[in-house]
Amino acid sequence: MRGGLLTALVLVAMCAPAAAQPATHEDHQPPVVHQHDEAQPEPAAVDLPAFIPPLTDADRAAAFPDVHGHAMRDNAVNYFVLFDQLEWEIGSGADAFAWDTKGWVGRDLDRFWFRTEGTGGEDGLAEGHADLLYGRAISRWWNAVGGLRQDVDPGAPQTWAAIGVQGLAPYWFDVEATAYVGGSGRTEFRVETEYSFLLTNRLILQPLVELSVFGKDDPEREVGRGISTLNAGLRLRYEFRRELAPYVGVTWDRSFFGTADYQEAAGKPVGRTRLVVGLRIWM
After folding, report:
1. Dist. CA 182–CA 35, nearest whole Å
2. In which band, very low, low, confident or very high, does the pLDDT at 267 lie, cut at 50, 70 and 90?
3. Please, which pLDDT band fits residue 260 given cuts at 50, 70 and 90?
4. Which residue has the higher pLDDT, 65 or 176?
5. pLDDT tens-digit profile of 268-280?
6. What is the pLDDT of residue 47?
7. Fewer C-beta neighbours within 10 Å, C or N terminus of the chain?
8. pLDDT (0 to 100) of residue 28
């Protein structure tokens, strides 16, 4: 009995120091696994189909060309000319040829613009005008313009001072809004807007609306005060190339108020609808 008790006391004395020893941070670390510095195997070569040629140094050079520090040429002089409408009109009244052309030359911020449009027929030029404008970019999408307009309508030629804005309105509407001041206190405000619906990448439907408002009567040119004329068109073009697109369409124009009275007095139709066939070109 005494021997068994003594043996138990000795075992307790031997275990007590180990049990009383506090645990340390190292005691909770996972065992360190020493990895051998072995070379990783090379990835297996991929067998490409026979129709794919092997990659060459020339291919790599073409994929990563030297761009010379991304050189910018913002101050270079460029130009753009758009024959938006070169068309033959048929329908009510005599057949006629019509045009609407615009363009610019200059730099990113400062440009000289020109616009010209009109109609002609068998008897020669029926009406037309040309604008020569200086334009300055006032925002990312808009330009302020100012300059001169020359009319070649029937009667004495007229010269107007012009000021306005043009650019891209929200939802991608092209807008030109211009106010004109002529001799004898004559004034006109003209706004034109158009939109391009991409039916496909090459087939495009383009509606266009143009409205003219005059500040006073001009009997010589059969123009009345107020809303004078409204022209609308719907043209469907096919772009064989972006620079070359034949089109077909329909146009409608209507005179109002005093202008309509002058038209009726002269025996001319107040409104008419016409079919058009034409070509759109830019360079």
Report:
1. 91
2. confident
3. very high
4. 176
5. 889 999 999 999 9
6. 75
7. N
8. 47
Q: Which residue type occupies 12?
A: V
Q: How far apart are CA 76 and CA 38, in angstroms?
A: 60
Q: Model pTM? A: 0.72
Residue 137 near residue 109 (C-beta atoms within 8 A): yes
Residue 17 lies in a domain: no
Residues 6+ apart with CB under 8 A from 275: 89, 90, 91, 248, 249, 250
Helix (H) or strand (E) holding 261: helix 257-265
pLDDT of residue 94: 76
| 187 falls within a domain | yes
132 domain-assigned: yes
**What's the CATH code of the domain at 170?**
2.40.160.40
Range(s) of the domain holding residue 239: 86-282
DSSP run (H or E) holding 277: strand 271-282
What phi and psi, each to the nearest 5 degrees, are found at residue 75?
A: -95, 5
Q: How far apart are CA 164 and CA 144, in angstroms?
A: 6
| Domain membership flag for residue 119 | yes
The number of domains in the chain is: 1
